[in-house]
Design a protein that fits this description.
Elements (H helix, E strand, L loop, with lengths): L2 H8 L16 E4 L8 E4 L3 E4 L5 E4 L2 E9 L2 E5 L7 E4 L1 E4 L8 E7 L3 E8 L3 E8 L16 E2 L18 E3 L3 E6 L5 E11 L8 E5 L2 E5 L6 E10 L7 E3 L14 E2 L5
Parallel strand pairs: 1-14
Antiparallel strand pairs: 2-5, 3-4, 5-6, 6-7, 8-11, 9-10, 10-11, 12-18, 13-15, 14-15, 15-18, 16-17, 16-19, 19-20
């Protein structure tokens, strides 16, 4: 971000990445009981990638999310005859939870990020979509990424230049019992490159927490989890926090709106 744009951006407290005219506090999901810590509620049919690479359709319902292996997650439902296996990857987790915690968020009405936080600052995650994983380009050029069609997103359009444009996605807050009592909250959000060129590695920031973001191709989304907050997390996320990426629009790097 050049100095002039940086100064202009500093005058803006929060910029929406949707067409909404006001910023909402991200929705909070309380998950505090031992038997509910791995429960996930899916509101609509979703497509994920199975261990064999084929699409797996997960119907709406309530599931227990479990780690099946180092590369698989398992969804268990009382209504299903057999569990559902999903291809997944291991990732580092900012929240160090005392027990497995399941979280899921639908970004921009298209991409679903499913993650199981595990003790030891690790997690298992996978991505699905409303209309089929492979119709969105699978996991894109990098595993763990998904490609969105920019013309379907409720975000500010990028200027017609061959440059990247990083914006924060919607966010969702999950709260659960902490290891020493009280309540610990986590913000689940993401970074989207809505530009027309690839973006190099960057950083995203929520309050005092900073996370690395890998290089993103046009239309690629990378999910983020900011955690270990004793109470509500800060409501805004700043992408390209260290000004590492030259973008078409440097003034839409800060914002947050609720995931519906």
């Amino acid at each position: 971000m050049n100095p002039m744009l940086k100064a202009a951006a500093g005058a803006v407290s929060a910029i929406l990445i949707s067409a909404c005219s006001s910023v909402d506090t991200p929705r909070t999901d309380k998950n505090t009981s031992a038997q509910d810590s791995t429960k996930i509620v899916i509101d609509q049919p979703l497509y994920f990638s199975g261990p064999d690479g084929r699409d797996v359709v997960v119907q709406s319902g309530t599931y227990q999310l479990q780690q099946a292996s180092d590369s698989e997650l398992r969804l268990v439902s009382a209504a299903a005859i057999s569990p559902i296996l999903l291809s997944a990857q291991t990732t580092r987790s900012t929240p160090d939870v005392p027990k497995p915690i399941a979280m899921g968020t639908l970004y921009e009405s298209q991409v679903y990020h499913l993650i199981l936080l595990l003790p030891g600052s690790t997690a298992m995650e996978t991505y699905g979509s409303v209309s089929g994983v492979h119709s969105r380009g699978g996991f894109g050029a990098q595993k763990g990424m998904v490609v969105l069609k920019a013309d379907m997103l409720a975000i500010q359009p990028a200027e017609p230049q061959s440059l990247p444009d990083l914006v924060p996605t919607c966010g969702r807050v999950f709260c659960f019992g902490g290891p020493f009592g009280g309540t610990t909250c986590t913000l689940m959000t993401g970074v989207l490159n809505q530009g027309t060129a690839a973006a190099g590695p960057s950083q995203a920031k929520n309050g005092g927490n900073t996370q690395a973001v890998p290089a993103l191709q046009p239309g690629q989304l990378h999910g983020l989890v900011f955690g270990n907050y004793y109470g509500q997390p800060p409501s805004t996320v700043q992408v390209d926090a260290a000004n590492q990426v030259v973008e078409t629009n440097e003034q839409n790097n800060v914002g947050q709106h609720i995931c519906h």
